[in-house]
Amino acid sequence: MDTHNDGSGVGVLDKAALVLSALENGPATLAQLVHMTGLARPTAHRLAVALEYHRLVTRDLQGHFVLGQRLVELASCTGGDRLLAAAMPVLRALRDHTKESAQMYRRQGANRVCVASAEPEMGLRDSIPTGAVLSMKAGSAAQVLLAWEEPDRMHLGLQGASFNATQLAQVRRRGWAQSVAEREVGVASVSAPVRGSHGNVVAAVSVSGPIERMGRQPGRVYGPSLVAAGNRLTDFMRRIEEMSRQANDD
User: Are 192 and 230 in contact (CB under 8 A)?
Assistant: First the structure.
């Protein structure tokens, strides 16, 4: 990464921005931060620890630096997250169609965060509030968020997980994941990916509810609806990118 530009004129902020930008690619060790940013090791460490203090950076279970929860909180306050705005009508439609709870998750290091949700008004449900932090080791959304990772990151993510590489291969082939009592006893869920403009998985859309309603093979019933919802949001992301590209060309 080229650090030899004029920057903003505020050197420490420019360097902190380099650290945050490097972590967009996923968890990183201090050595990897040094390599990606071009910063001196003591500088990279000092900035990462300072950002950690302000919750802009945190550490996963392996001790790697990852983007922090404060960034999610700030994004939700700005109203500028177009995917979140687009997700709510899709999640409400999923809720109304399936009669179950609908969520959208994003990965954050060793965890996944529920960034949007739509709950049925009545009846027994799997209630997961916006902002809830769940493990990447269990659940259909965790499977989706891990299934298309690079092999080394996937292998790391599978350590201690309730699912295995064979199941993730099935997720990639089908386009959806299911879990039954994997994250919580009595709860089933189905999830599908939302992709960014470059085809990378940026989020997972899910429905979850009691096993007695969703069944032991919920993907057979709900999989197509989840894939359709994920595709709607993927198309939205691509249109936004195309509009942005056209604006830059103008």
Answer: yes
In the sheet where 111-118 sits, what is the strand order? 133-135, 111-118, 101-108, 201-210, 187-195, 177-180
Q: Quote the CA–CA distance of 139 and 167 in Å, as a whole number.
A: 12
Give the C-alpha distances (Å, rounded to integers) separating 199 from 72, 132, 203, 241: 22, 26, 12, 12
The predicted model scores a pTM of: 0.69
- Whole-angstrom distance between the N-terminal and C-terminal Cα of the chain? 28
Segment 205-226, tens digit of pLDDT: 999 999 999 999 999 999 999 9
Cβ-based neighbours of 210, under 8 Å, separated by 6 or more: 124, 125, 126, 186, 187, 188
pLDDT digits (tens, 9 = 90+) for 77-136: 544 467 887 899 999 999 999 999 999 999 887 889 898 999 987 766 667 888 888 999
pLDDT at 1: 44
Tokens at 246, concatenated: 């056209």
Please report the DSSP string for 203-226 in residue order: EEEEEEEEHHHH-S-HHHHHHHHH
